[in-house]
Amino acid sequence: MTAAPDTAPRAARSLTLRNLHKTYTARGREPFAAVRGIDLAVEPGEMVALLGPSGCGKTTTLRMIAGLETVTSGEVLIGDRAVTDLPPGRRDVGVGFEGYALYPPLSVRENLAYGLRARRARDVGPRVAAIAERLEITDLLDLRPAGLSSGQKQRVALARALVRNPPVLLLDEPLSHLDAGQRQRVRRELKVLQREFGYTTIVVTHDQLEALSLADRMAVMDGGVIRQFGTPDEVFDDPADRFVADFVGEPSINLVGGTVADGGGAVRIGGAGTLPTASRARAGTRVQVGLRPQDCELVGRGSARPALSATVGVFEYLMEFGLATVDLAGQDPPEAGGGGPGRFVVQTPGGASLDPGAPVLIGARPEHVHLFDPGTGERLR
Ligand SMILES: Nc1ncnc2c1ncn2[C@@H]1O[C@H](COP(=O)(O)OP(=O)(O)OP(=O)(O)O)[C@@H](O)[C@H]1O
Fold first, then answer.
1. So what's the pLDDT on residue 332?
2. Measured from the CB, is residue 24 less than 6 Å from ligand 1?
3. Which atom of ligand 1 is nearest to the CA of 69?
4. In terms of domain of life, where is this protein from (predicted)?
5. 2-58: per-residue pLDDT in tens?
6. Does the complex come out with an ipTM higher than 0.90?
7. Is the minimum distance from the CB of 34 to ligand 1 under 6 angstroms?
């Protein structure tokens, strides 16, 4: 009987986190709860991005999954096997972390082959050559790590994580040191490899575009908890709260104070006018209104649609689309230099151009007008 070749896709495994906590305790310092109860169910072969501001606990979470950090409480399961207390080498995960040791005395080729040899894999040479080709590091194979740039080291670290076809792959900012062109190519290759081999993948990133383009679903974290877990579309179009609405999206969502209009279904924004909303918040409720630049629609004068009156401040032409910064009518003047309370950014279709000083009317579809509690940031549905 012939054994299956080493390069065959491995049966994908699920990855489950159950009420995961991490409290750092250092002598002479207050204990610090970096991760405060994370539940996450990643499907076999799925790619999930952990996204969130610096210090929100992304790397700590990844390190606990890898076994590089002890777990204060909770469970990590790969498939149905609890791995919480296993050392990293027995978890069957591939790790591509920044600065995760490449062995300095070994060449890049030997670094890539090392893990395969340790597992008595076959076809070591061809497998190393194949992954090197795909990550554009063939010409680096005979160099030692010390002679590599940070971008080159990053691609070698990624190749080393991928060459084993691990059932679970953990990546921390895998493309951060690459230049724009290379980042795009390696990102695409990573996605192709992931589809081909079916590794269940968690990728930590600061970069929203990276998260959007790579991930099947994303978990938006803040303060050691997951605020929302969903597809990029769900998170963008249906944010769980103001934090998620504000963190995800480029340019940022417009936020302005308003009051739910008589009869509901619309929200009044000072003297600027009203917008329709799908929220069922009660008439008279004071709210914060969120509307994405991409969801703003320019309304023709004389239209009966509810809309906000504004004046164009600046217009930036960005080829495929334009960005107009407008001042809403009847609002407090915006703070000097920054987006004040009455300032909106409006994305316009390519080809359209708006002159500074021009009056405009901004409308939106009701489902795009999100209302939040001004104090807690909770979504008012
Ligand atoms: N070994 C440690 N001892 C004490 N506190 C730590 C330790 N490692 C991390 N922290 C703290 O835990 C919090 C979460 O850190 P973590 O590195 O997980 O965040 P992150 O979301 O990955 O941030 P970044 O995007 O900046 O890497 C931070 O406030 C950090 O200062």
1. 58
2. yes
3. 1
4. Bacteria
5. 444 455 456 789 999 999 999 999 888 899 999 999 999 999 999 999 999 999 999
6. yes
7. yes
pLDDT at 335 over 60: no
Distance (Å, whole) CA 235 – CA 212: 10
Residue 3: the pLDDT is: 42
203 contacts 191 by C-beta, under 8 angstroms = no
What is the Å distance from ligand 1's center to 33 Cα? 10
CA atoms within a 13 Å half-sphere pointing along the CA-CB vector of 12: 17
Nearest CA to ligand 1 atom 5: 24
* Closest Cα to atom 25 of ligand 1: 54
170 Cα–ligand 1 center, Å? 17
**Kind and range of the H or E element at 257?**
strand 254-260
User: Do 353 and 315 touch, CB atoms closer than 8 A?
Assistant: yes
Prediction pTM value: 0.90
CB of 147 sitting under 6 A from ligand 1 = no
CA of 343 to the centre of ligand 1 (A): 35
Query: For 319, phi and psi rounded to 5 degrees?
Result: 70, -80
Domains of the chain: 15-242 (3.40.50.300), 253-372 (2.40.50.140)
Read off the pLDDT of residues 236-291 as tens digits, 9 standing for 90 and up: 999 999 999 999 999 999 999 999 999 989 999 988 999 999 999 999 999 999 99
Copy the structure tokens of residue 77: 């399961």
Instruction: Give the integer Cα–Cα distance in Å for 319 and 236.
Output: 23
The helix-helix angle for 108-118 and 150-162 (nearest 10°) equals 20
